[in-house]
Amino acid sequence: MKNKIIYKYVGKVLITFSILMVLPIIVCLVYKENISYFLYPAIMCFLTGLLLSRIKVEKKYIYAKDGFIIVSLSWILISLFGSIPLSLSKSTDVVSSIFEAISALTTTGSTVFEDVESLAHSILFWRSYMHFIGGMGIITFVMAIVPLSKNDKSMHLLNAEMPGNNSEKIVASTKKMLLYLYCIYFGLTISEIILLGLGGVKFFDSLLISMSTTSTGGLTFMNNSLATLSSYSKLIVAIFMFLSGVNFNIYFLLIIKKFKNAFKSEEFKVYVVMAIISVFFVFINTYKLYNSFLSGALNSLFHTLSIMTSTGFSISNINVYPSSCRVLLLFLMLVSACGGSTCGGFKISRLILMFKTIKRDILKIIHPNSIHVIKVDNKSVSDEVINSNNTFLFLYATLIVIIMFIVSLNGFNFDVTLNSVFSTFANTGLCFNIYNYADFSSLSKIALSIGMLLGRLEIFPLIVLFSDLRK
Amino acid sequence: MKIIVVGIGKLGDYLSKSLVRDLNDVTLVDVDFEGSRTLINNEDVNYVTGNGLSADILIEAGVKKCDLLISVMDSDEKNIICSLLAKKLGAKNTIARIRDKDNNNSVYLLKKEIGISYIVNPEYLTALNIAKVLSIPSALEATTFLRGRLQMISLKIKEDSVLNGITINSLIKKCNSEIIICAVLRDGVTTIPKGSFKLKVNDKINVVGTIKDIKIFLEYADLISEPTKKVIIAGGGTTSFYLAKFLLDMNMKVKIIEINQDRCKQLSESLDKALIINADISNQNVLYEEGIEETDAFISLTSIDEENIVYSMFASLKKVPRIITKVNHIDLDGVIEASNIDTVITPHRIATDSIVKFVRALKNSKKSSCEALYTFDDDSFEIQEFSIKDDFKELDTKIKDMHLKESVLIIAIQRGRNIIIPNGNTVIKENDTIVLIDNSDQLKNINDILE
């Protein structure tokens, strides 16, 4: 961390985060709640940020490594600051607050609160609001709004924070592209608020649900998630969960009327096909559990999409699902949806690439001399990308096993251990046989928190940070 | 017509000969004529030694008053510049050889701006030709006339074939379809057979008819074998690339064996479904491993003729049903006949046919003109298409009453949308298109077919 520009950037991120905290303060004022929960951490965050950004910088160049470090440091720091309001307002311990804050920021949606409905309005708002901030990523937000120096190689930052392995630029200017993506993000959220409002949901509720949906978060303000909503509202939420799992670049292409290019994406096609098949499979296996055909259809649609897009809402008890559905849903949990969206998991694009690699390697065994260039969306993929994809998937599996081992020390049965790790690492939140994480030990909570950060930042940034610290 | 040919390689050499035979004034331009002494000495051509990209040299060759400049130098870029230059200096038309190795089609977009009248891509034409052959079972060669509505295929008569020992008249009667056998190659000599001609084993016959009639004929002759499915292509050049594209579109399984690894990668990138093997074909284990014994067709398209012939001989030894060999340089027809390789494809011949066709159409644009052309391997016969205008002397005369030259056979007539296979009582009308075979080199316009 010799490059001082790292601190400058982290400072900028913290200042932005403190300004974002003004909104919950307004909510406090509206509902006449104690504003000190947010005022103090906001001021602390602002001052820290100011201090860091005052550091004099000689070199103004960001290297790839620095990008990773800026991203992981920023995420750790804003998680800490974001947890302070939770600790101040409710008598939860520090570790639980941090778990909750990370769960919110990484759009996981696992909670430590047993009774959510008893929380203050401002705290409920804060949790969904953190989803919204974390969904697209705080650094991209900073990059989109804060004027940056000219010779920034800001793609390094973007690559480190944006999910998926395809940081394809569709507009020449990074800043313009980010603004477009944010417009799409806000557009989706506002449309959902309006549509839910039309269905009779109160404004505050629909705001919270919408922020949790488009960021594919999953924290709600009710103890039974979204079970009490009307069927219309459930359907709207299901549709928007699906839409949030699509690569946002596709919306951009649709807006600029390049329809052909938009639907050419292999990942999108696989996403749609996987979603349809999975919903159908779950429906066939579960419709008998519900009293009507339609409610069975809605339930299977809602829960499959909720898990596939890593949102984690639920509208009924999913613990009644048979094993076949559980296994399918756990698989979908890990894969999740498209890169370039707000979802978790390791992304369909990586799955496609892995399958193509397997196909090539088998072909290589049958025809030892054959040469086969792997292509995705008609563009050839270099061996470097394939190797890093393989490494990523291996690390993904390894880290899941390590975290599972740590959590298993807690003494829960295997089912709970597996579900908790899968659902947090893939940033999903919903899982079988777990309602909240209040019973987990502090060690498990820390391990799961690290897992959530690893899953959200796609492993490498955090590993780079810690290997850099050791030097 | 005054024609300048720039760049005298294999294609330039062969092309010049064909153009001279059509009674054109041909001027050759090249940096040196060491390799083409025989052409200069034996043919009636003029030549200018110098760089074809220099305006002075082109002017010396008479570009200002020429009707056509054909640029067939070794690189696409040179040919484009030469055509542009010639157009600027006053040439009425230009033809350029564009190989378009990267397949980016940009030249076709710029054709108008550059002023190229006609683009020749020998690799593309060759690949198209091979694809046509493979699309018809049992055919050694295949060509189409009348915009694809009339088909000509060539076959070799095998020992156990029903065609062995049959006369042409009884064949046509028995198989009950409107076909014409327009040429027979026996013992190295091509002839136009009469009705009483008896077919023998090892004759190579050329059969013409509509696609439907050809199919009936093939069924009668029991030559409808399994359609070609698996194809091995030796060599991964530009021709192989185009060919693989055509064959993949026809749902065949294509394997390309190429020795250069970088080229393999390029091919794999542009041909998704083809299997690209990076290996040396001269190693027979490679061919066994890739299944030469199960393949339906083997096509040698490497850049070296001798290798192509040897690989095809090996494939023939392994009883591959269909073998196609590209031979570009070797001018020893007898050797190829003797080597038992059935189909030989010569790119410069195909390119020349397409250029000569264009030149003839250019010449006769107002009168009855030649529209398609096919030259037999030994240059003995040509098949041509003519559209008939009012200048034809024997309109509305029965064919048996016409004063046709001995060497001319009218194969087919297109009238409106119908294709007529003529007999003695058929008449030719204005606006017909006729297809005919002849061996006279002097067929400049349609009236030359008459005595």
User: Radius of gyration of chain A from the CA trace?
Assistant: 22 Å
Rg calculated over all Cα atoms of chain B: 23 Å
| Tally of helical runs of chain A | 21
- Largest sheet of chain B, described in full? 6 strands, parallel
What features would you describe in this structure?
The complex is a heterodimer of chains A (471) and B (451). In chain A, 65% of the residues lie in helices and 1% in strands. Chain A contains 21 helices and three strands. Chain A has helices at residues 5-20, 22-30, 36-53, 64-89, 94-105, 121-136, 138-145, 155-161, 174-198, 203-214, 231-244, 248-255, 259-262, 266-286, 293-308, 323-335, 348-366, 383-408, 414-425, 442-456, 460-469, and strands at residues 370-371, 375-376, 379-380. In chain A, strand 2 (375-376) and strand 3 (379-380) form a beta hairpin. The longest helix of chain A has 26 residues, at 64-89. Chain A is globular and about 65 Å long. Chain A starts with a helix and ends with a helix. In chain B, a hairpin with a 2-residue loop joins strand 20 (409-415) and strand 21. With 451 residues, chain B is α/β, with parallel strands linked by helices. In chain B, helix 6 (122-135) packs parallel to helix 9 (238-249) and helix 6 (122-135) crosses helix 14 (347-363). Chain B is globular. Chain A binds chain B through residues 363, 367-373, 375, 380, and chain B through 261, 264-265, 267-269, 272, 275-279, 286, 289-290.
